[in-house]
Each structure stands twice: as C-alpha cells, then as structure tokens.
Amino acid sequence: MSKQGKRKYLKLSGLEPMIVSANTNFINVGERTNVAGSRKFLRLVKEEKFDEALDIARHQVEGGAQVIDINMDDGLIDGKEAMVRFLNLIMAEPDIARVPIMIDSSKWEIIEAGLQVVQGKCVVNSISLKEGEKEFIAHAKAIKRYGAAVIIMAFDEVGQADNYERRIEISKRSYDILVNKVKFPAEDIIFDLNIFPVATGMDEHRKNAIDFIEATRWVRENLPHCSVSGGVSNVSFSFRGNNPVREAMHSVFLYHAIKAGMNMGIVNPAMLEVYDDIPKDLLEHVEDVILDRRDDATERLLDFAETVKGTKKEQTVDLSWREEPLQNRITRALVKGIDQYIVEDVEEARQKADKPIEVIEGNLMVGMNVVGDLFGSGKMFLPQVVKSARVMKKAVAHLLPYIEEEKKKNPTSSNGKENAGKVLMATVKGDVHDIGKNIVSVVLGCNNYEIVDLGVMVPPEKIIQTAIDEQVDVIGLSGLITPSLDEMVYLAKEMERKNFKVPLLIGGATTSKAHTAVKIDPQYKNAVVHVNDASRAVTVVGDLLNKRSNQKYIGNLKDDYEKFREGFLKRTKKKEYLSIKEARKNKYKIDWSIAKITKPNKTGSTVIEDLELRKLEPYIDWTPFFRSWDLHGKYPGILTDEIVGEQATSLFKDAQELLQKVFDQKLLGAKAVYGLFEANCVNDDDIELSSNKGNFKFRTLRQQLKKHAGKPNFALSDFIAPKESEIQDYIGCFCVTTGFGTKELAEKFEAEHDDYNAIMIKALADRLAEAFAEYLHEKVRKEDWGYASDEKLTNLELIKESYKGIRPAPGYPACPDHLEKLTIWEVLEVKERINVELTESLAMWPAASVSGYYFANPEARYFGLGKIKEDQVKDFASRKKIDFEYAKKWLNPNLIDT
C-alpha cells in the first residue's frame, strides 16, 4: 500500500451513495436486466411491457444486487430508445434507483444516451482498446465529463486477452492512457480481465481461472486504486445442467479471486454454495481445476461430476456432518439453523473449556461470525439469520446457569471479552408495531451486540433514562404510524438537551431518509442514521462504533443529510399550492342526477364475535409477508425466483405449518364490528352520517397541490352525494382484528429462545387481519350492502382491488389524519364491542387490526393527499372544534415546510 500512497476508493451512487472501500464486502452486480442475460427480460422489452421489466430490476435490488447492469443490445430492439425509456422509468422508482446503475452496451451511442438520463454516479460497461487509442481516449474523456466510472475490457487491437501476460499488458496500457493522458480518476477504473470457462477438455483453457486470479492480484498490487470485476458464471460453462458442481465452482473461484483482489462481479447468489459447506471430495476436485493443480484435473472432475449430477441439496437428511470436528458442527448448526443437536454440542464444548463463557466467546462467536459474513455479502437471507439466532439463543440458554455458577465461585474474575456494543431498541410512545425492530435486534444480536429491548409504546423518558442507566452505545427507534415521526423528533431534541453523544438509528415503515434528514437530524448534533432494512443495520452500527473511523463516517453522514435537506427544501418550494377555497372550487364532480346509489340491505352496525379463522386463508395476500422478512418479490413467483426462491419456499413452508397449527388449535381470535349508515356530504369536505345513536361527522382533507387543467383536487367527501342534492347516500366503517392471542404466543416462543417463530406469528397475525378486512369487505359488497351481489373475483383480483368501491383507512395516503379513528370508534363502539383499543398515538391494539371506511360509488378511487397548507389545517381545526396547535401536531407530516 505504501507503493500506492493513500488509498482512493471507488464512489458510486443511485439515490444512496456506495463507497467501495477496503472494508466493503464483494459488490454483487445483478444482470437480469440484460437482454443477453435474461430471456424473460428480452421478451418483455420486445413486447414493450416495461412495467413488468421494472419488476425484474426491483427483484434484483430486493434480492441483494448492489448495482444493476442494464443492456439493450439486441438486433430486434431500438437499443437507444429502450435504454433511455427504461432508465427514465427506473429513476421514478426510488426502491430501484437507490442503487447505482451499470450502463452496458457495445454501442457508444447507447452508452451516451444512457449517460444523459441516468441519475447519480453510474458505471459504463464498457470501453476497450479494441478500436485503437484514439477512440478509446475519446470515449474515456466523454465518460469523465459525465462523471461516471468505467469498466475496461481486457481487449486491444490484436484481440481479447486470454492469458496472464496479455491481461497484464492490456491493463497496464489502458491504465497508463487513462490516468496519464485523460487524467481519468484511477479509483473510477474497473478492469474486467475476462473470465473464461475451465474444464472444457481443451489444454489451452486449463489456466483460464488461475490466470484471471493471478492477473487480478497483479492489477490490484501494481495499478493503484482501481477495481476488478467479471462475470463469474462463465467459469462453469462446461457444466451446464449440473448445478451442484457449478455452484461449487463459482464459490471456489470467488473465494480465491476475492482473496486476490476481485471486489465486484456479476454472480447469481442462488448459484453459490457456501465455501466451507462444499463436500471435501467435490472441493478437492473443483480446486484442482480452478487452480490448475493436476494435469488430469478436468478428467477427474468430469468423472466425479457424474456422481453428483442432478442431486438436490437437503433432499435427504444428511447427518454426515455430525462426524466432523466440534467447531465445524457448531458452525454448521448456526449457518443452517439446525437446533436439534446444539445443546449436546455446546455441552461437549463446555466440558473442554476452562470457563463456560469461553464457549460463547469462542465456539459460538466463530460460527456467528460466519453467519454475519454470509449475510453481509448477500449469501444468506434474513429468515436464515433469524433461524441462526434461534440456535444461538438455545445454546446460550444452556450455558447461562454454568456461567452464573462460575460467577459465584469467582466473583472478581473477568467475564472475558466484551461484546461488540450495547444497543437500546424501542418502538416509540403510542406505537405498537415491532416486527421490524425485532428483526433488527436479532440481526445485531447475531453479530455480538448486546440488545436492550424496551418493547413497544415506550415513552421518551424511559428511553433516555434506560440509555443512561445501561450506558448504551446506540439507540434505535422504530415506528409504523405517522405520529411516531413526531415522537422521534421530540426524542432527538431531548437527547440534544441532555447532551447525549449516543448515535440514533431511525427505522420503520413510516420513516424515510427525507424525514430523517429534514426533521430529525437538525435536532441532534450527533449521529442520526435512517436504516431502511435489517441488512444495513450491522454495517451502520459497526461504522458508528469504530473508534478509528467513526468521526469521519459521522461527518460524512451529517454532510450528506445537509445536502439532501437543502435539495429537498429547494425542490419543495418549486411546487405551487392552492388555497383551500380554490381547491374546493376544483373538487372532483360527480353527476349525482345519474349516479347509481344502492340502498344497503342492512343498515346499522353488526358484530362478529369469533370468526372461524380458516375462512380467511383464501384471502391472504402473501406478498407483504415475504417483504416483512426482507425477501422481495410477488407471490407466488417469489417461490421460484432464482435469487430468493429457495429461502422464500422454506419460509413459506414454515409459515404454512404454523398457520395450520393456529387454525387447528384456535390459537388466535378474530373479531369485527362494522356498520352501514345514511350519509351526505356537507360543507364540501365533511361527511355527515346518522345512526340510531345520533349524527356524526367524518372530516376529510383535500389535495391542495396546483394541478394541470382538468385535473381535480380530490377529497373523500367528493364520493358522497351532497346534502343539497336531496339524494340519500350511504357510507360504511369497520374494525377487524386477529390479534388476540398473538402477544401471548410470541412471548411463549421468546421464552423458548425462538425468535424465528415469535416474529413469524406476528407476521401471520398481520396477514390474517388484512385478509379479514378483505373477507369482510367482500361480504359487505355482496350481502350487507348488496351493490355487487353478483361479484365473482379471484384472490388475485381482490388483491388488485378490481371491485367497485374503496376501503380507505385513517393514516393512509387518502386520509392520513389518524384523529378520525376516534369517530369510527365512537360510531361503532369498537372498544366496548370487540375490545380493540386506541393508544395515545391512535395506533390500534392488538397490533394485528385494521380499520377504515367503505365507499360504494363506482367513481370512488384511491389517491394521495400530498402536502397541504396551513389554511386547511386552521379550517380543519375549526370544523372539528379543536385547538389549531393540536390539529397542526396531528397533520404535521402533511404540512408544507415553510
């Protein structure tokens, strides 16, 4: 490194920055958005089904791709038009655009068209000396002007580099031209040194893999600051159809190439075996080929491959690993989530150790470090990690009595090594949702962090006092509902007032980088970080607590949030908004003289005391279930997804087993109360309903963003006939729950050190609650209201909301005001009838509950309220007869920043 001077790092970005430093795990590039790499993607682009093509990009990002490679080079496609169109669509999808883009084409005009529309700092794939120095320099200068990084193919006027010497020769020449003539930043150069197949039977191909590996080592040692990439699947091309051998070849190749300095590449995580899990005989044969260790290596692997051809992993119970040394057994149990033998193995380890604590610090942490490395590199997925945690907890539970006994005998003796740090986790006051928080706690716990979990609905005073008492290193806050955002802001202010130095993590479905940067970060001088998924938590906490580099990391965070804040506020100011008076003039207008209004078959309210849970199974939408486990993709396609399919299938099997147990043993209770009432719109934005208990009003909110001509400013009240029309209309409201029993079941699993099923039961209860809402809405449409009595929709059509009418819920985009839940509770007597309560932040308890309205008008639609002005808040407070400041507090997330 002294030869290279101070190390410079490759910096890329989508919406989020990526710094490829010495501590960064291998960067996995997704190639399924490449028409040459995916027949499905090619077909969708040809058929111009770009929305479906976007799903492929999304699946790659959700499946662990840190960069996505986009290639439109096909003879039947207008590559330039397709590249620009697809990139523009991606830029409008934050969940995809958050990662850097690799613009991949052999045609310069396509590359340049992509560079003109892509956001962030991308990678060009690729240029080379193939057409000579003049063109190479021209293209490099243009890429430098666009501010992109570049992949250089090991290709020159003579041809493609196919041995060690040619790879070095072309790389050195390319590097010298770029750095010395073009003044291209060395850290923005990535070499693709050509990965070719091995074991083809041709003698000249024997050294393909080892030549790449050694050339990689030479490039990283002699061409300062650059990176090395490649397409890994090429190496196993000779063994198409034999996945066990191909997976082993990819893992062995990567193991040695990464050690040599390869830091990024195109590799399918589903086609990788864990290096240490490759059977020793297969590993020996594969390494003989990859490293060219024997003259007969190819023949031996071909013969051996016949013995593993077509075999499927885990198809039969293989207990041969029980013959391995103790540490191997413990590590395998943790990696594979196998808990049957962990107690006997840790007992054997305890008897060999001087102190029981040494088993945790030694055997178990060795295994958990492997888990952490695999998860961090995208080779393990969240459900596997949670299973690993279950094994770890059972092991620790067995050891704890022995550790306590040791402490009594030697009260002054040291407990050994310290943990990696102490993290306080809490769901903020008034909020009851904790699945995401629990998952992050498990992931951090797997990486040797001590977790202080305060649970849900935790007041700020308790968070602060516990942080002081426990001397925690990090505080993590979670929240799902919008009032939780204000709680987080308040807590940040309190931490600043009390002169805290502890980093603050922000997470949960309602949180965002924008809210964290704009609202929370300015309140606290120390580190504030938005963590958008569990896989990032370990890296973030590690960076925050790294004493050698954390000040720089925190400084960069503060700078990033300040820039984001400035850009966000500038962007906000460009939008024009109407006064509430003007917005009402531009309301959505229905011709009520011809509108078809159906009188309900049954008005008033109804209670369902104890629904048979099995009735809800056909109504379950499984896609959000997988998302809660950080496995992204639509059900049922996710079960066969090439990246996460295996884990999704395993998770789904476990979910089905627990769900059937819930059904058979009636482990959860399902209750509902709902009602249909006469209603009319009054004063433009209010809905007045009458019941046998009197009259009530729902106050709705109206969009105030200035629209293009002919586009209305919606409010939910627009879908109910106005009183002055003298037409009687109707509205419904409801509350369902499947949460009774969830807390007790989760606590039972936790007492058994089974976080996996504790999280699983909460996720299933949430899915059942949403299914209950879907089931009840269908019943109302077909029977109680009867306006769609002949409706026959599949589960997929229900999920797509292909029915007439809508079911908006307070706290969601069309009606973000949670205060209206109070009116629903009053109208339906929810607490008295089914015992579902509202917290002080108006979250529902039990958490697995859903409430909302029913609108029947065929013109009713969902919309997002967006930002509103203070004049509407004042008007809302007046209509609701509440204090302006109180109204402002509840509507603050939607209030324009002034």
UniProtKB/TrEMBL annotation:
<keyword id="KW-0028">Amino-acid biosynthesis</keyword>
<keyword id="KW-0949">S-adenosyl-L-methionine</keyword>
<protein>
    <recommendedName>
        <fullName>Methionine synthase</fullName>
        <ecNumber>2.1.1.13</ecNumber>
    </recommendedName>
</protein>
<feature type="binding site">
    <location>
        <position position="621"/>
    </location>
    <ligand>
        <name>S-adenosyl-L-methionine</name>
    </ligand>
</feature>
<keyword id="KW-0808">Transferase</keyword>
<feature type="domain" description="Pterin-binding">
    <location>
        <begin position="26"/>
        <end position="287"/>
    </location>
</feature>
<dbReference type="Pfam" id="PF02607">
    <property type="entry name" value="B12-binding_2"/>
</dbReference>
<dbReference type="InterPro" id="IPR004223">
    <property type="entry name" value="VitB12-dep_Met_synth_activ_dom"/>
</dbReference>
<dbReference type="GO" id="GO:0046653">
    <property type="term" value="P:tetrahydrofolate metabolic process"/>
</dbReference>
<dbReference type="GO" id="GO:0008270">
    <property type="term" value="F:zinc ion binding"/>
</dbReference>
<keyword id="KW-0170">Cobalt</keyword>
<dbReference type="GO" id="GO:0050667">
    <property type="term" value="P:homocysteine metabolic process"/>
</dbReference>
<feature type="domain" description="AdoMet activation">
    <location>
        <begin position="571"/>
        <end position="898"/>
    </location>
</feature>
<dbReference type="InterPro" id="IPR011005">
    <property type="entry name" value="Dihydropteroate_synth-like_sf"/>
</dbReference>
<dbReference type="GO" id="GO:0031419">
    <property type="term" value="F:cobalamin binding"/>
</dbReference>
<dbReference type="GO" id="GO:0008705">
    <property type="term" value="F:methionine synthase activity"/>
</dbReference>
<dbReference type="InterPro" id="IPR003759">
    <property type="entry name" value="Cbl-bd_cap"/>
</dbReference>
<dbReference type="Pfam" id="PF02965">
    <property type="entry name" value="Met_synt_B12"/>
</dbReference>
<feature type="binding site">
    <location>
        <position position="807"/>
    </location>
    <ligand>
        <name>S-adenosyl-L-methionine</name>
    </ligand>
</feature>
<feature type="binding site">
    <location>
        <position position="361"/>
    </location>
    <ligand>
        <name>methylcob(III)alamin</name>
    </ligand>
</feature>
<comment type="similarity">
    <text>Belongs to the vitamin-B12 dependent methionine synthase family.</text>
</comment>
<keyword id="KW-0846">Cobalamin</keyword>
<keyword id="KW-0486">Methionine biosynthesis</keyword>
<keyword id="KW-0677">Repeat</keyword>
<feature type="domain" description="B12-binding">
    <location>
        <begin position="420"/>
        <end position="555"/>
    </location>
</feature>
<keyword id="KW-0862">Zinc</keyword>
<dbReference type="InterPro" id="IPR036724">
    <property type="entry name" value="Cobalamin-bd_sf"/>
</dbReference>
<dbReference type="GO" id="GO:0005829">
    <property type="term" value="C:cytosol"/>
</dbReference>
<dbReference type="InterPro" id="IPR033706">
    <property type="entry name" value="Met_synthase_B12-bd"/>
</dbReference>
<feature type="binding site" description="axial binding residue">
    <location>
        <position position="433"/>
    </location>
    <ligand>
        <name>methylcob(III)alamin</name>
    </ligand>
</feature>
<feature type="domain" description="B12-binding N-terminal">
    <location>
        <begin position="317"/>
        <end position="411"/>
    </location>
</feature>
<dbReference type="Pfam" id="PF02310">
    <property type="entry name" value="B12-binding"/>
</dbReference>
<dbReference type="Pfam" id="PF00809">
    <property type="entry name" value="Pterin_bind"/>
</dbReference>
<dbReference type="InterPro" id="IPR037010">
    <property type="entry name" value="VitB12-dep_Met_synth_activ_sf"/>
</dbReference>
<dbReference type="InterPro" id="IPR050554">
    <property type="entry name" value="Met_Synthase/Corrinoid"/>
</dbReference>
<dbReference type="InterPro" id="IPR000489">
    <property type="entry name" value="Pterin-binding_dom"/>
</dbReference>
<feature type="binding site">
    <location>
        <position position="482"/>
    </location>
    <ligand>
        <name>methylcob(III)alamin</name>
    </ligand>
</feature>
<comment type="pathway">
    <text>Amino-acid biosynthesis; L-methionine biosynthesis via de novo pathway; L-methionine from L-homocysteine (MetH route): step 1/1.</text>
</comment>
<feature type="binding site">
    <location>
        <begin position="430"/>
        <end position="434"/>
    </location>
    <ligand>
        <name>methylcob(III)alamin</name>
    </ligand>
</feature>
<feature type="binding site">
    <location>
        <begin position="862"/>
        <end position="863"/>
    </location>
    <ligand>
        <name>S-adenosyl-L-methionine</name>
    </ligand>
</feature>
<comment type="function">
    <text>Catalyzes the transfer of a methyl group from methyl-cobalamin to homocysteine, yielding enzyme-bound cob(I)alamin and methionine. Subsequently, remethylates the cofactor using methyltetrahydrofolate.</text>
</comment>
<feature type="binding site">
    <location>
        <position position="534"/>
    </location>
    <ligand>
        <name>methylcob(III)alamin</name>
    </ligand>
</feature>
